[in-house]
Amino acid sequence: MTATRQLFFGRRLARRTVNIICRCSVAFGSFDAEVIDGVGVNGVGRLASAASSILSWFEAWIVEGPVKFAAGVIGALSFPVRMIQNGSVQSYMLSIVFGLIAILGYALYLAHHAIR
Length: 116
Known about the structure:
Blueprint: H1 3-77, H2 79-84, H3 89-115
């Protein structure tokens, strides 16, 4: 084979190789845009958005609802206790003594009826 003929086949081979690479590049670019980005990334994004909406509703109504209700009940029931608090140690001690007397009286009442 002559040198010009080798050069011709070499250029032809290079041109075909570049042409094949360009076609593969276009095919892979289309695959990336349609399948990877379109289905994969956008699908996962939609799925995450839907899961976020569902979990947000669940957290607001199932988790926070009972907690807020319990906090409201405790706050309402503690209102009378807050009204009698005055910060004086003597009044707290007097309340403790009255409580102990009441518990002792109830225990004696139960013991009296248990003996009968």
